[in-house]
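Minutes, methods subgroup
Present: GH (chair), OT, SY

1. OT presented the first of two proteins processed in the latest run. Sequence and structure tokens recorded below as shown on screen.
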Amino acid sequence: IDHLPKLAQTLAALEGTDLEILVVDDGSSDGSGDFCDRIARENHRVRVLHKPNGGVSSARNMGLSAATGEFIGFLDADDAAKPHMYRLLMASARLHSSDLVMGGYEKVDTQGITPVSIPLETEIREKAVIQKVTWSMAFWNAWAEGEYCSALYGSVWPNLYRRALIEEHNIRFPEGVAIGEDLLFNLAYLSHVKAISVENQPLYRYNIATSSATRRQNKTLW
């Protein structure tokens, strides 16, 4: 089973770490829930949570409530994590004692693969700079106190989050929001962050599907 990309993580090679994989079956009707249960029976790191269909926010919130690890990462079902992703993100979190590790990623579409790096220093501790990171994410390309802030993608999947901070401030994804739930989670989390570190290797593979929620035209959003 470890040949499956989502399970072939090398995090255990980092001393004192292990990996807990929570798979949330959000009311699937195609047999994938049973498939995940079979994987969990053969791999102690995998735990499957079943629930009625409620969307990505409710699924992630269920995972957050069940998680026990020191740090949390998010992986969408149609994307992939490179085998050394969580080992490198966790190493960065330890080295810099960071609350948030922002990782590079690859965008994959019909045109090919495009690596995306994070336009930030390796370590950020100044409150004013963390605030600029927040503005940059919220307003895309932003000017903050006369300084230009390059756009930062608001998704949660390339990053690593300290679970204690999430629980202390009861941060969850807003259910009922169709698009932008990642950004709202990040903005709530960033308001409590004291240190950010960056690992710019493209560790996450973001598969851009034309049928995804972020690619479909939805007139009700206007």
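2. SY then presented the second protein from the same run.
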Amino acid sequence: RSMANTKEVKGADVLNNAFSSSFTGGDGVSLINTAHPLAGGGSAANRAATMADLNETSLEDALIDISTLTDDRGLTISVQATKLVVPPQLTFVADRILNSDGRTGVIPQGYTVNHYLSDPDAFFLLTSVTESGEGLKMFQRTAMETSMEPDFSTGNIRYKARERYSFGFSDWRGVYGSQGA
């Protein structure tokens, strides 16, 4: 259980640090930023210019922003939101927005609650870029190995477990986010 908890915490850290300039990606800026440099010049954003709480308007604006993302040459690419990720504090807000009558299919995979998010009003939208294998990443370097042995001096059984993995992101277009107002 302890190892599973650690993996959840480390995985959530990618989103918990998504707005921090201390955790930058290959383009030199944080995962969620308004100034991702484009190879063809200029910049692009994967957040609104002004942070907003999760509500119908902020979600609509985010979905429009996602649908107009461009590649590094400034050409529009086909990207759509696939899943809303919220902390436990936004469960009921997400449910009201996505599951009210007439709202079916706005986000194909609906929403999920991540209990390891540290900001109670931040929300994230995963996009089809992540679904295609880019965006958020998890590398399993060594699968979990367990072993046990008796301790001669105490008569107790000693257990140990080991695994290696890392979390990160390769394409900032894989996630869109807001820290809330």
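Chair's summary of item 2: The radius of gyration is 19 Å.
Next meeting: continue with the remaining queue.
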